[in-house]
Amino acid sequence: MPCDALARVNATVAKQTLIAELFEQPEVAREALLRLLSQLEEVLTVEGSFVGDTLTLVLSRRAGAVRFGLNHATGQVSMQGGDQQLLTRVRALLEETGGALFQARVIRTLTQVCGSPVEEVPTGSTARRITIRL
């Protein structure tokens, strides 16, 4: 169906945009990811670094270390030493963090362009509604 194909294309573009945002603001992204990943169950310590086109995250757990790599060009997440459930959770956190960084940049840009206060309205979900007062 054409609608399904369009939804898949939009999801791919959105995912690539969110991943790219992590590499646009590496220090902010790294700090946010370390804070979020350290809150996952059974995680003892978290280390992360951006080197070239790769974000590397290492989670230490009682069961051993798990290493993740996020490739900037492809958006692929690789994992060594974990399970599928953990990979799914880390992928979601990467995309959510990229989304939050992207939203913050949009708000800053709108404020600069419009010269007006931009107000965020809570929506009860991860999405945010932005109101620009002219």
Structure description:
The chain is of the alpha+beta class. It has one domain. It contains 3 helices and 6 strands, in the order H-H-E-E-E-E-H-E-E. The strands form 2 sheets. The protein has a 4-stranded antiparallel beta sheet with strand order 1-2-3-4, with helices on one face. Strands 5-6 form a two-stranded antiparallel sheet. Helix 1 crosses helix 3 (84-114).
Offer a concise description of the structure.
By secondary structure, this protein is α+β, with helices and mostly antiparallel strands. It is built from 3 helices and 6 strands; from the N terminus they run ααββββαββ. The protein has one domain.
Secondary-structure map with pairings?
Layout: H1 2-24, H2 26-38, E1 43-51, E2 54-61, E3 64-71, E4 77-80, H3 84-114, E5 118-122, E6 128-132
Antiparallel strand pairs: 1-2, 2-3, 3-4, 5-6
Helix pairs in contact: 1-2, 1-3, 2-3
| Percent range of helical residues | 40-55%
Number of domains: 1
Supply Rg.
Answer: 17 Å
Strand order, largest beta sheet:
1-2-3-4
Salient structural properties:
50% helix, 3 helices, two-stranded antiparallel ribbon, 29% strand, single chain, 6 strands, 134 residues, alpha+beta, four-stranded antiparallel β-sheet
